[in-house]
Write the structure tokens for this entry.
Amino acid sequence: MELPGPAAPAAADAQPGQPGFIPVRVHGWRVRNAVPSVAFLAAAPWLAEVISRADPQVFEAFNQAACALTGYSEMAHVQDARSGREYEIDIRCVRDAAEQKSGFKHYWAGLDGQVYFPAALENPRIFGIDKQPQARAVLRQLQQLRKSAGQSDLPSPYYAILLMDGDQLGKHMGDEVKQQPISAALNAFTQSVGDIVREHNGFLIYAGGDDVLALLPLECALPAAAELQSMYRRQFEHYSPLGKPIDSTLSGAIEYVHIRTPLTCVLKDAHKLLDDIAKEQTGRNAIAVRVWKPSGLVAQWAMPWEKALDSQGQVRMAQLAQDFAKQARQADGEMFSNKFFFRMQQVLERFEHADNDILQKLLLAEYLHSWGELGKRTGLDMPRLEEQLGQLLAQCMQWRRPQPGQAKLELHKTPFNPEAALLVRFLAQKGLDKE
């Protein structure tokens, strides 16, 4: 039986020339009329956890308060398979949590994404001054919802823009023997992109040939990029003619952006990050990342894929962030302090040509010193901490490929990039640290 709730958007019912008309196709490309807000995408993993843990009655009270403030603008992204409704897309983690939670009504998860952020509810410019009483009521219910779910953290106010593009295809297209295999490989890759992006709770904007553009939650972007480049490589290995390998690879750029940042400005920067940093500076077959806060650019990191991934194909940077976050929870404190970052930068600049073992010991000493009174700290796993700092140091190294397509890697003239540590801290804290 279909659950009660708001109906799906019906813009397609409008006729050409009428307000609200949205064409179904434009020159053969299907136009989606349901695009998730960046606030909803940023909050999606947090929302999925809250749905799975909170008392449905508490969520119902939150839903009623939020409905007095705003509407169900995200309904198409939490489609209900049981109701028979068919939407174009959905955000997987939220939809799955809603379907698996007993007593949870699906449309409760279709609210405007901004209602999950206290900063938005407290800002009269978001919902209007006349709606501040309703916004305060939603804020109170949000606190109760977090309490019911045992969720002390707020949702991350950051999401990711992922842009990817193939490398070195032009040099192969001149060979007639390779042209058909290239088309077959690209077609197979394009057909798989949507499923990979959806699996990582993202929204695919475009996939065509060797180009990909998608929006994802913060913690999902690096794993999605790694899986896409792996799929791209496998397709070209599969379709390459015997004795004529097509050594095209996939480079990527990820922009981590605050939900209040104008999207168009960052999209332009993503192309520069991909072309200038991932491809030209790092030598292609690489991933490049930038972190933008309201104060501006705070970190940039780039790495060839073979250095960015471990033996299992997992992104080392993402794994490091998870490890440091776990270490902080166990030790009941901050995993990094601003003092540590400042000192780490000084150490790497002053001793950039020192042996790695010496650098690792220096970083360990600075890290422990940044904790202050260590006697009051518990739960520090020293062997694991030493291993993590060694891995962090490795991700601070700056590699480049001297010629496009060559496997050989060499260090930059400046071998270390301390901003890699800033990226780890950002990912571990999900951007929730104070400015």
Notes: The chain has 16 helices and ten strands.
